[in-house]
Design goal:
about 325 residues; alpha/beta; Rossmann fold; 2 domains; seven-stranded parallel beta sheet; five-stranded parallel beta sheet; binds glyoxylic acid
Length: about 325
């Protein structure tokens, strides 16, 4: 019997590819940049499963071009690149890769928080530019992390992992989530407050919500104006959660002190984006889950979702379980 066909939209860690190869005929798009849309639509025309990345839009057009596809497996925890409703309507389960990247992503949120507060990016550029002439009593003064107030917007798995790290820095931790996590409050020493209280009281704010129509630009001009002038904002979730034009104004005009961004809107950030001109805006290229171990585990998880889908079994991590109620 012919093996099921699977299209993988980019090179991913071997761990995942090996799991797929054992049972499937796989085609991997070999280039470094995302597969051009026309080529993608051509490649998926007779596949049984697809392993996608957050750079691919999986919408009705995509699904129309993949009439045999039984599973869409995204190698990411976020899935805002996928029209999940449309997949469900067509009876196609969608997989993601939660849990395995939680701590690695929280590590990056904390890295950005520390680095933005202590000017690590701009100070490093200063050294590279040959500007380090002496020890400066007034040079690169930043903000203390220990003892400061951290506001976490969205207390899911990653938000909670950030809180665990913040405890080690003796931070005072506030959080907001539409689904309060009273169970975690004693263990993590958290206090539930409104978003407005987070904005007004926090020295550091980190966002950990999925991107949905409700969270799109939830941090805009009005919210940034409510923050403290020493506030540092961190985003490892999705770029669209913070309005980039408002953020530029806030950083330029000193309404807040600094930003640390793993994600931008759009991605990649255009080289003429004014945020790139600011010393108090530290930007890294969407690498929060990028550790050897985590990316390898993500690839394995995504591969196992593909196999389950093509065998008609329930995906180990499925974002639209309602697909099984039909
Ligand atoms: C990365 O952003 C992910 O959603 O896994």
């Amino acid at each position: 019997m012919a093996k099921p066909k699977v299209y993988v939209t980019r090179k991913i860690p071997e761990t995942g590819l090996e799991i797929l190869r054992a049972q499937c005929d796989i085609t991997v798009y070999p280039e470094a940049l995302p597969v051009p849309r026309a080529e993608l639509l051509q490649e998926i025309k007779d596949v049984d499963g697809v392993l996608t990345l957050l750079t691919e839009k999986v919408d009705a057009e995509f699904l129309d071009h993949a009439p045999r596809v039984k599973v869409v497996s995204n190698m990411a925890v976020g899935f805002d690149n996928i029209d999940v409703k449309e997949c469900t309507r067509r009876g196609i389960p969608v997989g993601n890769t939660p849990e395995v990247l939680t701590d690695t992503t929280a590590d990056m949120a904390f890295t950005l928080l520390l680095s933005a507060a202590r000017h690590v990016g701009s100070a490093s550029r200063y050294v590279l530019a040959g500007k380090w002439k002496t020890w400066e009593p007034l040079g690169f003064l930043g903000y203390d992390i220990h003892g400061a107030t951290l506001g976490i917007i969205g207390l899911g798995r990653i938000g909670a992992a950030v809180a665990r790290r913040a405890r080690g820095f003796n931070m005072n931790i506030l959080y907001y989530d539409a689904f309060p996590r009273r169970d975690l409050e004693p263990e993590l020493g958290l206090r539930l407050v409104s978003v407005d209280e987070i904005l007004a009281q926090s020295d550091f704010i980190t966002v950990h919500t999925p991107m949905t129509p409700e969270t799109y630009h939830m941090i805009g001009e009005a919210q940034l104006r409510k923050m403290k002038p020493n506030a540092v904002i961190v985003n490892t979730a999705r770029g669209g959660i913070i309005d980039p034009k408002a953020l530029y104004k806030a950083l330029k005009e000193g309404w807040i002190a600094a930003a640390g961004l793993d994600v931008t809107e759009p991605e990649p950030i255009p080289m003429d984006d004014p945020l790139l001109t600011l010393d108090n805006c530290l930007i890294v290229p969407h690498i929060a889950s990028a550790s050897f171990t985590t990316r390898s585990e993500m690839s394995a998880m995504a591969a196992r979702n593909v196999l389950a889908g093509i065998h008609g079994e329930r995906l180990p991590t499925c974002v639209n379980p309602e697909v099984y109620q039909k």
